[in-house]
């Protein structure tokens, strides 16, 4: 202690030194790096276990989880039984829709009981206001082989009849000349 220092000033100097954090010895770590370092330290302190011990621990953990699952499922079963039938989400009612109709020109009638109908679309582009034309080819079922190439026909959507056929011939509107 120096001559000019009193015991009180010495105590306050010691207290302020204890309050200020000490500078870390190494570089500061991010939170992720700090967690990794902590996990590494925890792992290195664990006693080494054999494969049999790890396997036994794993089996015990799985058995405990299976017991908890069984208990939870039993509770849910009791809860469902107490609620009674008719609770929960009702089944969706089937939507009643009218099947789509398309009118187009037969471009191929070569396969048996099948026609290929080309549908032409012409509509105005929303942004550019230009008429945009496009075509779609549908495979339709023609039970009586009634339609020929060039005919104007009306088809209706149906259940899938083959890999590509989802339409049926309704009527021939105009025969090819």
Describe it for me?
The protein is 34% helix and 26% strand. With 177 residues, it is of the alpha+beta class. A hairpin with a 7-residue loop joins strand 4 and strand 5. It is built from three helices and five strands; from the N terminus they run αααβββββ. It is elongated and about 95 Å long. It has a domain at 101-174: OB fold (Dihydrolipoamide Acetyltransferase, E2P). The chain has a five-stranded mixed beta barrel.
Helix content: 25-40%
Structural class: alpha+beta
Work out the radius of gyration.
Answer: 41 Å
- CATH topology name of the domain at 101-174, in short, is OB fold (Dihydrolipoamide Acetyltransferase, E2P)
* Biggest sheet record: 5 strands, mixed, barrel
Layout: helices, strands, pairs:
Layout: H1 7-19, H2 31-45, H3 51-83, E1 101-108, E2 114-124, E3 131-141, E4 152-157, E5 165-174
Parallel strand pairs: 3-5
Antiparallel strand pairs: 1-2, 1-4, 2-3, 4-5
Structural key phrases:
single chain, alpha+beta, 5-stranded mixed β-barrel, 5 strands
Summarize the structure.
With 177 residues, this protein is of the alpha+beta class.
């Amino acid at each position: 202690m120096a001559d000019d220092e009193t015991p009180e000033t010495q105590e306050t100097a010691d207290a302020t030194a204890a309050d200020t954090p000490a500078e870390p010895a190494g570089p500061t770590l991010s939170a992720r790096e700090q967690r990794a370092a902590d996990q590494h330290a925890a792992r290195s302190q664990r006693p080494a276990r054999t494969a049999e011990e790890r396997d036994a621990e794993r089996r015990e953990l799985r058995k405990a989880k299976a017991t908890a699952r069984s208990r939870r499922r039993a509770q849910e079963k009791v809860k469902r039984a107490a609620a009674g039938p008719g609770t929960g989400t009702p089944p969706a009612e089937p939507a009643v829709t009218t099947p789509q109709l398309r009118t187009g020109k037969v471009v191929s009638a070569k396969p048996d009981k099948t026609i290929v109908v080309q549908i032409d679309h012409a509509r105005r582009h929303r942004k550019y206001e230009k008429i945009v034309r496009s075509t779609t080819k549908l495979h339709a079922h023609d039970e009586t082989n009634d339609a020929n190439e060039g005919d104007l026909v009306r088809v209706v959507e149906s259940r899938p009849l083959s890999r590509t056929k989802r339409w049926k011939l309704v009527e021939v509107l105009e025969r090819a000349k």
